Amino acid sequence: MYKIGQLAKLADVTPDTIRYYEKQQMMDHEIRTEGGFRLYSDNDLQRLKFIRYGRQLGFSLEAIRELLSIRVDPEHHTCQESKTIVQERLLEVEGMIAELQHMQRSLRRLNDACCGTAHSSVYCSILEALEKGALAPAAD
């Protein structure tokens, strides 16, 4: 059994993170010492690591909650449910990558348009392009 500080250290999170997940009803602490300290089991540690890895992958707390529900009661769920959650996240990530690639191309064009000399920035092509972009309607 682990106290909250020990559990936090093993899972590389803070005790406040554990308390937050408890408030979100993603973790529980059924056992307490006579002094009132929370005690956690190896199953709690595994659950915390599951949540932490899900957060590292960018899953929302709701998605992790659903995945935990599937994990806790596998007889009443299908792999398709888990896969659907992962596919939704994958689509989000692919959209973010496309957006970042668009930003990268735009920044590359700005960078390439600048001569990079030490002359006055009165006629700086980067500043001019940014000014024009600020005046142009947003492209969606």
The helicity comes to: 55-70%
Largest sheet: 2 strands, antiparallel
What portion of residues belong to β-strands?
under 5%
Order of helices and strands: HHEEHHHH
Summarize the structure.
With 140 residues, this protein is mainly alpha-helical. Helix content is 64%, strand content 3%. It contains 6 helices and 2 strands.
Topology:
Blueprint: H1 4-11, H2 15-23, E1 31-32, E2 38-39, H3 42-56, H4 61-72, H5 79-113, H6 125-135
Antiparallel strand pairs: 1-2
Helix pairs in contact: 3-4
Can you walk me through this structure?
The chain has 140 residues and is mainly alpha-helical. It contains six helices and two strands; from the N terminus they run ααββαααα. The chain has helices at residues 4-11, 15-23, 42-56, 61-72, 79-113, 125-135; strands at 31-32, 38-39. A two-stranded antiparallel ribbon has the order 1-2. Strand 1 (31-32) and strand 2 (38-39) form a beta hairpin. Helix 3 crosses helix 4. The longest helix has 35 residues, at 79-113. The radius of gyration is 24 Å and the shape is elongated. The mean pLDDT is 88.
Question: Notable features of this structure?
Answer:
mainly alpha, two-stranded antiparallel ribbon, 2 strands, elongated
